Amino acid sequence: MNLLLRNALLLDVATGEYTEGDLRCADGRIAETGTGLRAPDGTRVLDVAGAHVVPGLIDAHVHVTASTADLGALRAMAPSYVTAHAARIMAGMLGRGFTTVRDNSGADHGLADAQAEGLIRGPRLLFCGKGLSQTGGHADFRGRGENLTDDHPCCAGVGRIADGVDAVRVAARDELRKGAHHIKVMASGGVASPTDRIDSTQYSMDELRAAVEEAEAANRYVAAHAYTARAVNRALEAGVRSIEHGNLIDDTSVELFLRHDAYLVPTLVTYWALKEEGRAFGLPEDSWRKVDEVLDAGLAALERAARGGARLAFGTDLLGGMHRHQSHEFRLRAEVQAPIDVLRAATSGAAELLGMSGEIGTLDAGAHADLLVLDGDPLMDAGVLADRKHLRHVVQAGAVV
């Protein structure tokens, strides 16, 4: 698809500065930027009349199969039914300007291939398959009186149970075999799981290191669900590349992020949404009562990490009918960060985490032609990215979608 944008304010995310000019897309990539550009016959030309143009957004923590906040219920759903919901959820994400997402358990190669082939309308999908959990961990959704679990490959759940170093290696290798872009491990308790405590640590250091070793052997990395400083710090010491949530980190955590060149992916909006609407969208009562333990701490953790210079990426982690609040994350982060830093987390920062610097999250020549045309300046007000009325065009692979 060939496209030429004329008279745009083009954002350089690295410098935080706009340049007046044109941008030409060819064959799904950004071909060039400059002034007075000319395009081959058949190119679609859009005069955006001074609108702000920024890279397509990246959400580094989503669950596109999570049609309900009762994640345990997904195990019993037909994969075809879950796929239908995922297609709807992904289309909504693209409509909000997210042109790439990292799924942090639930999605698989089938959904990623369907999107890449144009069968599903949605963002580019980087997946981990099923998250790895110890027995009784954050991806073990059995109730206390339930003994059987279904780890069949066709099960639509978001996790698989693997206990012990050898089992963790097998599970990681199996997800990598199926094309996982990263491995997800549950390194602490969580809100949505029925039998663990948020302040627990999960997996031994040997098990965490085994997952990291297997991912690194395949030139991939590990993302770890973790809340408390104790859980976060263990995961960072084990070599995990990204910490998901991290609401209860301390100063030692920040030092470890810097030492290990790791990333924090806060997901503030999901706690806000779970508290407001979680029960209406299937979150069990016991899980809803856990939300307060992490709700208030998330913003303070983001501020601590940003002040300390930790690498940050944008994430939301929304479930069920709460996916519609995805862009509200921009408003929440702007309470403690400058708008350019909020935008960087959702563009260049997330691209670096995903190992796609120069490919996404930038308007540089050669990158995928994913970009947004905005009525409003997101560097003056991060809320511009949170309000659909400011989103004039979403361009994906050079096509206005």
TrEMBL record:
Determine the domain of life of the protein's source: Bacteria
Query: What InterPro entries does the annotation carry?
Result: Amidohydro-rel (IPR006680), Metal-dep_hydrolase_composite (IPR011059), Metal_Hydrolase (IPR032466), Metallo-dep_Hydrolase (IPR051781), OTAase-like (IPR057744)
Outline the extent of the Amidohydrolase-related domain. 53-400
GO terms, molecular function: hydrolase activity, acting on carbon-nitrogen (but not peptide) bonds
Any Pfam family hit: Amidohydro_1
- Which PANTHER family does the UniProt entry name for this protein? ALPHA-D-RIBOSE 1-METHYLPHOSPHONATE 5-TRIPHOSPHATE DIPHOSPHATASE
Protein name per UniProt? Imidazolonepropionase
